[in-house]
Predict the 3D structure of the following.
Amino acid sequence: MYIVEGNIGVGKTTFLNIIRQHCPEIEVVEEPKDNWTNQVQGQSLLANFYSDIKRWAFTMETWAMICRVNYHLEAQKDTNPNRVMERSIYSGHYCFAHNDYECGFLSEIEWHVYTQWVKYLIHGKCRPPKGFIYLYSTPEICHNRVKIRNRDSEKNLTLDYLKQIHNWHERFLVQKDLLTPELRDIPILILDCTKEFKHNNSTRLDLVEKVKNFLSSK
């Protein structure tokens, strides 16, 4: 499997729809984000998280990890080499959870509990992907795209938070900081998504060609 990563609002869903449209031979699997964006007992976990990060960080990161691990374990049963998945357990850990801990949103005991689950589930049960596809853009562009799509759960999402998550994606996928050796050696395709690509046909086709070349080279 290959995994598509990138900041909130970079355009992962748009990108995957483009791949689905132009590359029928590639199987696209979207992130199970309904698990934390939909109303559960009258609340959206993601909306709660953005409105009060410190209160909801441990709940959010633990639940997201469980959902992503289940999603990863199901995907790794499939033998299709051309399967592309949206986001992963790895960015959940190395970007979002690490950011929560560094910002003080997770207490020491919460971080300890969370990382024990990471060791057991992520490093013990999940096979690494064949490659990562990193959709790069600036936090400012991502913030503008978030405002345009206008999701209720993202009303309290700030530019400062997107800057933090952007920096962690750079550490994770470009600098390869904090990674285990098995993850550090995984190939990464970096796609520049700063330009509008939803309606720009030449940009769309350029992204598709780069993805095809990346998958065929592995």
Observations:
- The chain has a mean pLDDT of 88.
- Strands lie at 2-6, 27-29, 39-40, 43-44, 83-86, 131-136, 188-192.
